[in-house]
Prior knowledge:
By secondary structure, the protein is mainly α. It has 16 helices and no strands. It has helices at residues 3-20, 22-41, 53-68, 73-85, 88-96, 100-127, 155-169, 183-197, 202-218, 223-239, 241-248, 256-274, 284-292, 308-341, 347-366, 376-396.
Amino acid sequence: MTGDRLRVILLGAFAVGLAFSITLAESALAALALRLAWRLVSGRARPVDWPLALPFAAWTVASLVAAGLSNEPLSSVVPAAKGVLLIVTFYAMLDALPDAGAADRFLSGLLVLVAIVALLGIVQVAICPGPGGTAAALGPLGRKCHRARGFYSIYMTLAGVLSLVLLATAPRLSASAAARPEQWRIIAWLLTGAGFALTYVRGAWIGFVAGIGTLLAVVRRGRIVVAAGVLILAVVVVLAPGVRHRAESIVDPNDPTARERVLMWRSGLAMVRDHPLLGVGPGGVKREYPRYASPDALQQRRGHLHNTPLQILVERGVIGLGAWLAIFVVFFTRAGTILRHLAATAQRERALVTGCIAALVGFLVGGLTEYNFGDSEVVMIAYVVMAVPFVVGRDGSPDVKDG
Length: 403
């Protein structure tokens, strides 16, 4: 088996795993990481070409120091190490995708795969007897069926995955080799969008809207196609009473889940006041929350605070939060530079970069009401999306400096 064929097989297995099986995804990622290590040893890959190295290193050090100096370092080091190890996704994909064409094929294949998962989610909701019910015809996949979850354990994971893929691929709805929309791509995208709507995850919806707003502000061509796609999804929201009611609850100040989140965030800020510099350590919210929980809270125990920046601030302090923010500041700065260097005629490349920028905007905005950075399946796809602009820059803009 040639090295290139092995690379394609591993990428395919990784894409299938991202959509259907976390075990397969992690196994394929481990193989891609070993491939990268071999290429480094053999001199085929050069660390000097790695972007985001400094902010990722700062995040790694901040996480491990926060874990080591926490009240329970042994309990903190495992979640710290897990979060750090997922960074390999970014560099493994940067190495495994040789050019913009390969990146486009990977994202397009991932769109088709998650469209299948979204279709399953639609079926789950369609035949579900209601909240708390089980769709017996689907076996184990019929549990928790009132909100689309596909093959994932919970609907929030599916929502995070679908939002990233929808936004990353949205500009390609109108940027094709034939300079016209490809029907299969539009069908897959709309099917994915319908499944996304049926997750009922409001934070991911808000993030998606923010990402679409970014696209409409940045893209030069294809605004009408993107806007038309979003309009069709909006019609789904209007026609589906459950989705419409869930959307309306976003602005309802009396919504019980909104009140619960406010209480969680107050408890989190209380933890920050007591541990401002390095936090309580990765995984520490689960240990410390009962001491800080409001008496009015419905749950006195929490594993996370439904807010990514606050979660990081609580568990890694201001140093960790600064390092985490630096990752995305550098990403957006360099992705923007790559986009500016691309010729106006490079429609596919520009679509890839703008889609990935929008996807990360949606990811970060969605993280204001969910701890999506703590969800391995979602984070792996986020790192895949982050790698794509640098693949494009390396392939199409040699004057863009990495580092």
